[in-house]
Model the fold of this input.
Amino acid sequence: MKKLLSVILSAILVFTLVPFGVFAAGKCTCGKDPIIMVNGLGNTIYQGDRVVFPPQKDTIVNAVKQAIPMTPAIIGGKLSDTQLEKFLEVAETFFAPIAFDVNGDPINGVGARFSYPTDENHKEGDFIYFDYDWRVDPFVTAAQLKDFIDYVKELTGHDSVYLAGESMGTIMMNTYLATYGFEGINGVVWYNGAYNCVATCSDSYANKNKFEAEALGRFLAQTGVNTGNQFLNDLFAALTESGLLETVFNSVTDIADDLEKSGRFSRFLNETIGTMPGFWAMVSSENFDDAVEFVFPTPELKEKYAGLIERITRYHDEVGSQVDNIMAEAQQITGKVGVVAGYGSVLAPVTADNLQQSDGVIGTAAESNGATCAPYGSCFAENYTQAVDCGHNHISADREIDASTCFFPENTWFVKYGKHNLGSYGKTICNRIFFSDGFNVFSDPTLPQFLLRDEATGAVSPLTVENGADIQAKTTFTSKILSFFFRITERFISLFKALRGMIIK
Ligand SMILES: [Zn+2]
Ligand SMILES: [Zn+2]
Done:
């Protein structure tokens, strides 16, 4: 018996140690098709050997140097025409180097760098990552993804693959599926996806941003809690409590208004980030027409950018507005689908709905394709009942999310305090969906519909009434002292603004 066991063991060992290269010319017999993960936005953009995005230290230092002399005017809430132009010029130093031409094509010599994998070994559960230039037309990227999938099949000796997309990667994945269909695709997972919209981008392009000091206060308080830094908690609480935040914020809002009303914000968009079809794909279907109107407000601009507008409209028509159809097909054809979304964080305080639940970058309702979410910091009323009665419970223990309205109510997972970037639990969920039959939110009690992420370890556990309570910022006496000084500062600034207002009038 012992001998038999050792023979079996060594046979398994030998089998695992044989490099797959031996079989590369033929089929791989491991039985686990590879998972291709379409990455989110993040690739560095180069001009030759120089990094142009994200902006490097010299660009940032230069911008700060140019902005400093404008500080009193900014705090005063009013910039002259020359200053507004200067302000825009500074903003443009960050984005002009990565802008596209009028047809939405990259300008020669500026782009991302990426390479294909060369290791034909692939282990169960490992992702093979697909990179791309996040600025370009999703249809161009989808064609590159097709080549990549063919390459991975050849490399690994498999006839089919699984697809997972993260954040912006879900846009590229959906464009691929809408264009090339599901042949050779065994399953699809949307992870913290941008495929419905990214409100910060969508609301900016459509001129629906909302600036509120209260929202900024919430955003800062959350940042304090997330960093676990007591001083930041005290500082942010004092800034809000003293009224200083609101006073300064109102000045900045006045300047934003002037930028918008003078047409300068539109110009900034159509000369820089508005030229990139990749960003346009993050505009919601509802906002699309308004966004085209705001970014290209005149017939001359519409004519000038006709090539670009045609491209972004194609994405909107064939992919952005077809999310439900793409998902329905994925489920019918592959039978293995899943969605993962985060909640418990507020968005950057510039969106029209600044109380929406999110993972900090993308709204939860958009990411989950349809969850009903209580506004950030609150939960459903006691008499709230599940929107769609399907016979099981889809309301989270903290009563903040109702998953019954999701496109896949049984295949959508929610992670409270889940970060936007892919956690190891994301990989686990992908694997369970792809490599077991009919895996859903009821299959494994350790992976139910609602999970809680622990900030210290990054691990998730089932969300319960006890562990699911919202984390609140706590302040100390330091906050009271800071608040006292901020209140005095606030009085000075208000006086300065009033005097300035009298002089300028
Ligand atoms: Zn294999
Ligand atoms: Zn159900």
Confidence is low (pLDDT under 50) at residues 1-24.
